[in-house]
Amino acid sequence: MATVPADAVPEPPSNLQLEESASFDSRIIHYIQRAAATGLYEIRGLGAKRHLPHFDDLVFLGASLSRYPLEGYREKCSSTTLLGTRFAKRPIKLDTPITIAGMSFGALSANVKEALGLAATELGTSTTTGDGGMTAEERQSSKTLVYQCLPSRYGFNPDDVRQADAIEVVIGQGAKPGGGGMLLGQKVSPRVAAMRTLPEGVDQRSACRHPDWTGPDDLAIKIKELREITDWKTPIYVKVGATRVFHDVKLSVHAGADVIVVDGMQGGTAATQWAFIEHVGIPTLAAVRQAVDALEDLNKKQEVQLIVSGGIRTGADVAKALALGADAVSVGQGVLVALGCNSPSFVQRGQHISAVADYHKLGTAPGYCHHCQSGRCPVGVTTQDPVLEQRLEPAVGARRVRNYLQTMTMELTMIARACGKQDVHHLEREDLAALTIEAAAMAGVPLAGTAWIPGQGANL
Amino acid sequence: MVSVMAPAAQRVEFDLEQQSVRELNEFLHGDLSGVQEVLVKNPDGAHSIAVGLNAPVRVDIGGHAGYYAAGMNKFATVVVHGNAGPGVAENMMSGRVEVTGFASGGAGASAHGGLLVIRGDAGLRCGISLKGGDIVVGGEVGSFSAFMAQAGRMVICGDAGDGLGDSLYEAVIYVRGKVRSLGADARFEPMGERDHAAVRELLAAAGLSHPASEFKRIASGRTLYHWNADAKQTY
């Protein structure tokens, strides 16, 4: 009798019954096994991965007989964007409404921060610091730099407040409304640790509330303090993660914000608990509508600007956000992908070099990676490792990001012209139709082919 | 303070009954050469008095101040002759801020440097998120003081409330009175010679005189520095 080794895997019989459970599908089984194996929730990067109602569920009603389109390549269509016109003596003027979202030095390498600054400056838009202070590289390379004031206050200092072009008070972010920043020890390098006043290699879990104020009345006083420090020159943004958007936007207006940033649940992160990313917050599509409702309710639509972020990927997404009432958008993950995130290769001195083996070491493959938290980014974007960070050459990254932002801006103006608009800010809700009932209800635009907006009466 | 421009050195008065906080701050952010001292009369609890200072000037606030007095201070000496509202000397970088009365919540929050002296009691969350500044409190501190304090030193001459030093990083607390409870990961440690010297130095700087031997040291147990996963089971 032949012995069978204990670890031998038998050939599967051909008549297996494989009825997968919808509740306990392979994804959930993997989740439970991982939880049982580690005793710790999963922490990962990027944003919500599951299907959500999104801008893809809207379409534009281009001009035809009832409206005139503009000549696509000949007639002017402005994309100039003004932010911070309410109280600040020096509002921000951008050439495009597409800005670069707040991402920290720490989450990203110094090379990446420099590349983002170079690209934004060339395209006439702004970049934003993150939960780790301002680096000299990004101040140097960014013509317009937004400086975040976060609960952790890592590296926050008055010199950088004074040299910022705008200040963004961060209440929360779409990937984790109600949660604080996180940077695992492998990314807390000597420079990152020094900037944040933390021990090297510590698993940084930051506060979720600001240390010196609580609630909207205090925030009003805090904003006044920042205005006093900057002699009322600098626009002040308030950023909220999308949850109770209608109320949060109203409270931000009352607190004195010049600009409100609303970040939906598709918004990215460098490291956050899985349950936060996928289960806390509302989709960007719903958030834009609620934010615009709040501004219109207060009659502040022209006075307080709205920036929308969280899963903005294409020029069409930008156009839809603007048509719903946003004044500008912020792009984070899209910019990372433009830099090389999830690309099979990286560029060194003009040569493409494969990174596939390094994705495999992380247990993933190009196109599927979300391991920003590991600090082992195979293409050198979300890392502090001295070897890996060299994989992103600032000039290469800057060119890619510039091209990406330029493409989106061109798509935006193309759609605006097709809708008969001389200015991208003239896009309006009336230019949109929804493809799904969910999107129609969330965005407040009619289901295509009907006049029906769920929740707003049934005049079919 | 010795001024190299002694002949031109002047004392400037601002009366907040007549002038706005905005005018005061704009003046303090301007060219202060020759200005030795600024007296702020009738502060009447106004917020953001003398914030964002960036020069070695002395500012005397003649009464109670509201929120964020001397916020983000650098180089300057600011004295509140009265009580201070929440966030006094928040995010201070250097210089000295003194409150002759009591301070409300979040005193010295996130201060990166400089010295904050509170002669009376301080409210909740004193020294929260401290990043290298020094704080001396003549009286008591409220609950959750030194929450997540990362660096710097706190000397508390009176008692402390609940949750003192919760989630401390490398900041060190010295307490003379009773501590109602310690926060997560904070622990009492023996006082060494360097601790006695630190307490003596800070008390002297604050103009207080208690024997250093009466103080206890509290620092981080460092058990929260890393995730504590019961890892590496497999399927």
Strand content of chain B: 15-25%
Low-pLDDT sequence parts of chain B: 1-6
CATH architectural grouping of chain B:
3 Solenoid
Classified in CATH, the superfamily of chain A is Aldolase class I
Give a count of the beta strands of chain A, DSSP E runs of length 2 or more. Answer: 18
Which pair of chains forms the biggest interface, and how many residues does each contribute? A-B, 35 and 46 residues
CATH architecture of chain A: Alpha-Beta Barrel
- Discrete helix count of chain A: 14
Classify the secondary structure makeup of chain B into a structural class. mainly beta
The Cα radius of gyration of chain A reads 23 Å
Quaternary: heterodimer
Average pLDDT level of chain A: 94
What is the CA-CA span between the terminal residues of chain B?
A: 71 Å
Quote the beta fraction of chain A: 5-15%
Number of strands of chain B: 11
Q: Mean pLDDT score of chain B, rounded?
A: 94
CATH class bucket of chain A? Alpha Beta
Your description of this structure?
The complex is a heterodimer of chains A (460) and B (235). Chain A has 460 residues and is α/β, with parallel strands linked by helices. Chain A is built from 14 helices and 18 strands. In chain A, the strands form 6 sheets. An 8-stranded parallel β-sheet of chain A has the order 5-15-14-12-11-8-7-6. A two-stranded antiparallel sheet of chain A has the order 1-13. In chain A, β6, α3 and β7 form a beta-alpha-beta unit. In chain A, α6 packs across α7, α10 crosses α13 and α11 packs across α13. Chain B is mainly β. Chain B has one domain: 3 Solenoid (Pectate Lyase C-like), CATH 2.160.20. Helices cover 9% and strands 23% of the residues of chain B. Chain B contains 2 helices and 11 strands. An 11-stranded mixed β-sheet of chain B has the order 1-2-3-4-5-6-7-8-9-11-10, with helices on one face. The termini of chain B are far apart. At the A-B interface, α1, α4 and α6 of A face α1 of B.
